[in-house]
Amino acid sequence: MILNLFITFFKIGAFTFGGGYAMIPIMEREIVENKKLIGDEEFTDMLALAQASPGPVAVNTSVFIGYKIRGLTGALSCLLGTVLPSFLIILIIAIFFNDFKNLAIVEEIFSGIRPAIAALILSSVVIMLKKGDNLTKRISIAVIVAVLVGFLDISPVIIIIAGALISLIMNYLKIK
Amino acid sequence: MPVLLDLFISFFKIGAFSFGGGYAMLPFIEDVVIYEHGWLSATEYIDILAISEMTPGPIAINSATFIGYKIAGFTGSLVSTIGVVLPSFIVVSLLFYVISRFKNTKVVEWIFQGIRPIVVGLILAAFISVFNNTVADIKAVFISITVFLLVYVKKINPIVCILIAGLLGIILY
């Protein structure tokens, strides 16, 4: 199981191009849909917490999921799995390639991969929106958040904390 | 200060104080690495960004490994990478412990109720930003639509989709 977790996250780490969010579709497929190690709602919760914590989102998410699935050993093997591919690849580039970024074939491959990442991220959005009820409300919140973050440059951390507070206050008032 | 300790502390700070991951971390990394320590020139830093975009993994880890190696060889890369990851690990461990302890309380449930719908919006924002920065010509639009159909309609594994996209890049560009 531990080796399995390590291998899964090694795969995820090795194919996460273009920042932490690119990892979400791969994680969703490997951990939620195929292996069913974690439920939809838990996965979303872990993503939210990972956003609100300091450091790389990919690292935070994998540590959270590791804890959830297999405690401390799980967290450590997921962390190692996520970090090792980039560590090894950068090390190899630092040692051997002075001109890596100028290799024509590398540039071509990445001209193909970059727009693919956009498509993969969009598919995550659609998949996540389709799960659960009250679609209109969830779409509206998503669009508002996207505008706040994407166009008004408001930090995701602030929005997450604000969302938590609003929900706490509204629920509290409902009870009273 | 011995250079290894210096590397460790600098990347620990980067890990501890960068919120929002990825591109949100860049100004902070830039500040520490270029202006505070002079470990890299602005041009070298831009080169690292380019390499990070072309290699998998979080940019914070890519730059930690690269800069660590450049300053102090293999040990340097190891120390810097551990430094940048450690704050995440500590914070997430604490947070996970607290949340598991109070998992079944109303307050924790309410907090999650509030933040669950926000996550989708954050991912949507990431899509808009990636789309704006990468889908620049008609070939890119073609690749984007093809991959969306493959992953969403045909349910092809995202890793396979990335490999196909790389191949399309070689053919089209």
From TrEMBL, chain A:
Q: What is its main location?
A: membrane
Q: How does it sit in the membrane?
A: Multi-pass membrane protein
Subcellular localization: Cell membrane
Which InterPro entries does the record match to this protein? CHR_Transporter, Chromate_transpt
Q: Which Pfam families match?
A: Chromate_transp
Give the record's keywords alphabetically: Cell membrane, Membrane, Transmembrane, Transmembrane helix
Domain of life here? Bacteria
* Spans traversing the lipid bilayer: 6-27, 74-97, 109-129, 141-170
GO CC: one term?
plasma membrane
Q: Name one GO molecular function term.
A: chromate transmembrane transporter activity
- Family per similarity comment: Belongs to the chromate ion transporter (CHR) (TC 2.A.51) family.
What is the name listed in the Swiss-Prot or TrEMBL entry for this protein?
Chromate transporter
TrEMBL record, chain B:
Membrane topology term reads: Multi-pass membrane protein
InterPro entries registered for this protein in UniProt: CHR_Transporter, Chromate_transpt
Q: Which domain of life is it from?
A: Bacteria
Family that this chain belongs to: Belongs to the chromate ion transporter (CHR) (TC 2.A.51) family.
Q: Where in the cell is it found?
A: Cell membrane
According to UniProt, the name of this protein is Chromate transporter
Residue ranges of the TM segments: 7-29, 78-98, 110-131, 143-172
Q: Name one GO cellular component term.
A: plasma membrane
Named from the GO MF annotations, one term is:
chromate transmembrane transporter activity
Keywords recorded for this protein, A-Z: Cell membrane, Membrane, Transmembrane, Transmembrane helix
**Chief subcellular site?**
membrane
